Amino acid sequence: MTPQLPESPCVRNCCLDDADVCIGCGRHVDEILRWGAADAGEREDILARAAARRAARPALVFRGAGQA
């Protein structure tokens, strides 16, 4: 039986920062491009690195119009 592949962490908020990391899912552009061909183990590794990047990133705070 073939192991089930982890699903993509894509949240459809694709925008790369200065380090070529997606601010939506936390994957590096190379990991995004590799995802389709990656096996289950490689996908798990990518997911772990992406989660670590997201955890290390400061939270974004959005303010309403007119608030400073």
From TrEMBL:
<dbReference type="InterPro" id="IPR010710">
    <property type="entry name" value="DUF1289"/>
</dbReference>
<protein>
    <recommendedName>
        <fullName>Fe-S protein</fullName>
    </recommendedName>
</protein>
<dbReference type="Pfam" id="PF06945">
    <property type="entry name" value="DUF1289"/>
</dbReference>
